[in-house]
Amino acid sequence: MAKVTVQGERWFPSEISFSKEIQEVWGDWYCDSEVGKLRAVLMRRPGEEIEQVTQLNYSTFRWKSPMNTDKAREQHDLLTNIYRAHGVQVNYVETQRTDRPNALFVRDQVLMTPEGAIVCRNGISARRGEERFAAAALAKLGVPIIKTINGDGWFDGACAMWVDRETVILGTGARANRSGAAQVESELRNIGVKHIVHFEIPYGHAHLDGLINFADRKTAAIFPWQVPYEVVKFLLERDFTIIEATNLDEIKINACINFVALEPGKVVMPSGCPEMKHKLEEAGVAVIEADMSEILNGWGAMHCMTAFLKRDPIY
What we know:
Layout: H1 18-25, E1 38-43, H2 69-85, E2 89-92, E3 110-113, E4 116-119, H3 130-141, E5 145-148, E6 160-164, E7 167-172, H4 178-190, E8 195-200, E9 212-216, E10 219-222, H5 229-236, E11 241-244, H6 248-253, E12 260-263, E13 266-270, H7 274-282, E14 286-290, H8 302-305, E15 307-311
Parallel strand pairs: 1-2, 4-5, 7-8, 10-11, 13-14
Antiparallel strand pairs: 1-15, 3-4, 6-7, 9-10, 12-13
């Protein structure tokens, strides 16, 4: 009988990077900008949770007033129809806590990256717990979750904005503390981000997307009196055109900076902002308007409602 030589176990790991196998293993998910062609989003159609907001408790949820629920849903549907008309796959957080009316603002729960989602942890107690259901929706879709904010950190997704694959603006303030921002920065650097532009969000503001946004590869809109000099200087040094929103009613009441780029140079923005619309168009940006008047009672608009899951790379 031939002698059998038993060799030890030989395990050799695959050395393919996560980014090169994400499509095969997880699916086609990617985001490295605010303007690349929009392909897929995660949203929450206002559910029964918004019916809990009344004239007696609306301030508890940081709203300006209760919403007309039917009208709010109509406006949400209007936006999703615009997305679909531009080839965007709209996915929903289908289940949510009935005591979390802010859950329609999904951007705050998810920060998408080129390698998967960072699940956030909201800065205010009235929103804690929403992230669990956003995470469940991501898992159902097959979107990899590369980080969940934990420990003593808190961070809303709207406190970060992609400039390009190597550059992210990272805000701190009432909705993102330094621990939360440091966790986000660590994960971003782990996946190849080289430049972090720090932005201290002023008192009285929640997120970056009421203060700064991007409409094209090299076009940024800002609330000029509230954006730090160093942030604007950084963009100007990289040949960005800066559009200054100066109509305070448009900025604070109608959320004129809270738009979403459908592709480079084309945005959908809240209606009722003629000055900002004109400035964007003068800069060569095509504008679609959508009525967000009822949604704005929750101090948010389309950018707040939309977590990007897939954008085409812009470079």
